[in-house]
Amino acid sequence: MQAQNSIQNQFIDTITHGDCIEVMRQMPTGSVDFILTDPPYLVNYHDRQGRTLPNDSDANWLNPAMAEAFRALKNNRLMLCFYGCPRAEKFLEAWRSAGFRPVGHLVFRKSYTTKTTDFLKYQHEQAYLLAKGRPPMMGSPLPDVQRLLFTGNKLHPTQKAVMSLIPVIRAYSLPGDVVLDAFAGSASTCAAALLTGRKYIGIELDSEYFNQASARIARIKGRIAAKRSSLELIPTSG
After folding, report:
1. Chain-wide mean pLDDT for the chain?
2. How far is CA 149 from the centre of its chain?
3. At what angle do helices 88-98 and 62-72 cross, to 10 degrees?
4. What is the pLDDT of residue 233?
């Protein structure tokens, strides 16, 4: 047990640079309380600057990654996972094969268009809420339509707004819980966990995004420390 705790503690409140499958294999079974992640959508994505995402052109990683996520998650807990609509069947197959049970679906609406086809303007993203076991209610149900704020994608081509993830983390985890993001990107999930009093574990494969994520978390920790320091200097009455 002590060895397991030591392995787990090395990942808590850190972002690890590496393959999420290999990293999660080092984590003890049932060691995280909630998973919020935004993996590659298997669409060979390129943004306007030519930036790409690792492993976005094949699905070889999908089943083993979801199997490890299921193993690492505590029983009777939840995962919220974004996915790409054109490959929905592959994601559903991987989640069910791992043992997850879909219990809800969220739409994150945008105020802008990210892509236009002959038939549609793309103005939303989507995610499945997936259960391991029978999770209890932790508060009021979250509306299944959420607002996805625009980030400008400065740190990552598919960067999610921290403020759009905070309501999800508050709804499906408790203060002090460990939140895992196996596809950390620019660390939006980790930042949202940090700002809501949760612990976080981030994993990122790409070295450039890993460096961006690490620097971002360091900036946020610095701001939190500065705010605490300023509050300590405020004189109290009486």
Report:
1. 90
2. 16
3. 40
4. 59
- Give the chain's length: 238
DSSP state of 85: G
In which region does residue 44 sit, left (phi positive, over 0), alpha (psi from -120 to 50) or beta (all else)? left
| pLDDT for residue 32 | 97
Name which residue leads in pLDDT, 170 or 1. Answer: 170
Residue 202 to residues 15, 17, 183, Cα–Cα distance (Å):
4, 9, 7
Distance CA(160)–CA(180), nearest Å, equals 15
Is this model's pTM higher than 0.85 or not? yes
Give domain limits for the chain. Answer: 2-233
45-68 per-residue burial string, b: 16 or more CB within 10 A, e: under 16: eeeeeeeebebbeebebbbbbbbb
What mean pLDDT is predicted for residues 39-51? 84
**Nearest CA to 130 among 170, 92, 89?**
92
Higher pLDDT, 49 or 13: 13
**CATH numeric code, 2-233:** 3.40.50.150
pLDDT in tens, 74-96: 999 999 999 998 899 999 999 99
Radius of gyration (C-alpha) of the chain in whole angstroms: 18
CA atoms of 59 and 172, how far apart (whole Å): 28
Q: Cα dist. 206→24, 55, 180 in Å?
A: 16, 10, 17
Using CA atoms in the order 206, 95, 113, 47, what is the torsion angle rounded to 10 degrees? Answer: 20
User: How far is the C-alpha of 205 from the C-alpha of 180, rounded, in Å?
Assistant: 15
